[in-house]
Design a protein that fits this description.
By secondary structure, this protein is α+β, with helices and mostly antiparallel strands. The protein contains twelve helices and 15 strands. Bound molecules: dihydroflavine-adenine dinucleotide. The site of dihydroflavine-adenine dinucleotide has 35 residues, from helix 1, helix 11 and helix 12. Keywords: FAD, Flavoprotein, Isomerase.
């Protein structure tokens, strides 16, 4: 149930390794879950439909596995932020600090400055996100790069957000602004959808789209399958149990896509907008994810991203994870124990933000530790 990376990885392993037939259903009209991408009609530029997806991993088995289905480009992710009409590199590094303070601090000088500014508050005594952030990086950097951006992401003033929303705020005392530190990084050469389709392209895998697991009128619904077939469920866990312990909260994103009559809009794939003067959090310009491609040079595609709390009808993107959510999750975990032949997995099935490599890694482990032994027992 679900054709995202978790569901497809388990399906591929079961079909290939155990020689069993697998039916993958998804309520969307395409496979791939949130990693799905397609070429924008007018320009042919690959657009990640559910927000920018950058692949990176230090997990060797995952890297070996994904390379069976796609080659990767040598793309390296870098992000910039526009604060009051000036562009700074992220994550906050020596370049950001020196530009912001109009200075040429050495690493040691910058470290001493930030330590002094952060000493205003004690991290262990922080009562909310704002206090915690100030205690970690000092007030000037917090107010410029964190405060309004966080308020936009959460639609909540950071003084009203719990301190636990951030565990740390990394500051680099070098000019390194490479976003990820993983051993492997890149984008699928032929795009995400080609990669995902290759995973599903197996004689023993059948994919049925536009099929909702909770629609009793379709034959592979919950009542018809649970207890009859082994099920891998990668949808929302609260929905599976009919919200018995209450709803788990999520944040969602709204995307505003536009084709512009210029070859290059912002010169980089992702530009954050730090301030409250701009309603969106960032702009993606997809052509820059693939500089190696021969895209037309007279048009470009941009996507503005807005963040807000999700209602039941929205796509759930990031777990809100309040203490109440965690309490509900524990109740759902208890209920899960009663579902013998159902494996709950993926980001929705575990109420967890998972990067792609984590979803794939979790699926490979679930296959080896739970799914394969289940069938070995039967045979
Ligand atoms: P996923 O959500 O992909 O798949 C679940 C599937 O279940 C969906 O296709 C859904 O339609 C289906 N489903 C749900 N309910 C159903 C029902 N009732 N009936 C039938 N089907 C149902 N990762 C990364 O490594 N680098 C990145 O840059 C990003 N960027 C990023 C941006 C944004 C905005 C988000 C939200 C996420 C990312 N990710 C990411 C994370 C990445 O999207 C994530 O790792 C994968 O989607 C996880 O795959 P899953 O299979 O767990 O879920």
């Amino acid at each position: 149930m679900g054709s995202g990376f978790f569901g497809l990885t388990v399906a591929e392993r079961v079909a290939e390794e155990l020689g069993l037939r697998v039916m993958v259903i998804d309520r969307r009209s395409h496979i791939g879950g949130n990693a799905f991408s397609e070429n924008e009609a007018e320009t042919g530029i690959e657009v990640h439909r559910y927000g920018a997806h950058l692949f990176h991993t230090s997990n060797e088995p995952v890297w070996q596995y994904v390379n069976r289905f796609t080659k990767f480009t040598d793309y390296v992710h870098r992000v910039y932020t526009n604060f009051r009409g000036e562009v700074y590199p992220l994550p906050i590094n020596l370049g950001t600090i020196n530009q912001f303070f109009r200075s040429a601090y050495s690493p040691a000088e910058a470290r001493a400055l930030i330590a002094e500014q952060a000493s205003e508050l004690d991290t262990s005594e922080a009562r909310n996100l704002e206090e915690k952030a100030v205690s970690l990086i000092g007030r000037p950097l917090y107010e410029a790069f964190i405060r309004d951006y966080t308020a936009k992401q959460w639609q909540t003033d950071p003084t009203q957000l719990p301190a636990e929303v951030i565990s740390r705020l990394p500051v680099r005392y070098t000019y390194d602004n490479r976003y990820f530190n993983d051993t492997h990084e890149g984008l699928p050469v032929d795009g995400y959808t080609a990669w995902l389709e290759r995973m599903a392209d197996h004689p023993r895998i059948e994919v049925q789209l536009d099929t909702d697991y909770f629609d009793a009128s379709q034959p592979l619904n919950k009542q018809a399958t649970v207890g009859q077939l082994p099920v891998v469920y990668t949808g929302p866990i609260d929905r599976y149990f009919d919200f018995a312990a209450g709803e788990l909260q999520w944040r969602t994103l709204d995307f505003e896509e536009e084709v512009l009559p210029v070859g290059d809009f912002q010169g980089t794939p992702v530009m954050n907008y730090a301030g409250s003067d701009v309603p969106y959090t960032r702009i993606h310009e997809f052509r820059h994810f693939h500089p190696e491609r021969d895209y037309r040079t007279d048009k470009t595609v941009i996507m503005r991203e807005f963040s807000r709390f999700a209602t039941r009808d929205d796509e759930p993107y990031y777990p809100v994870n309040t203490p109440e959510d965690r309490d509900r999750l524990l109740q759902y975990r208890e209920l899960m124990k009663g579902e013998q032949d159902v494996l709950f997995g993926g980001r929705l099935g575990t109420y967890q933000y998972l990067d792609m490599h984590m979803a794939i890694g979790a699926a490979l482990s679930a296959y080896s530790n739970k799914v394969a032994p289940m069938f070995e027992k039967v045979s």
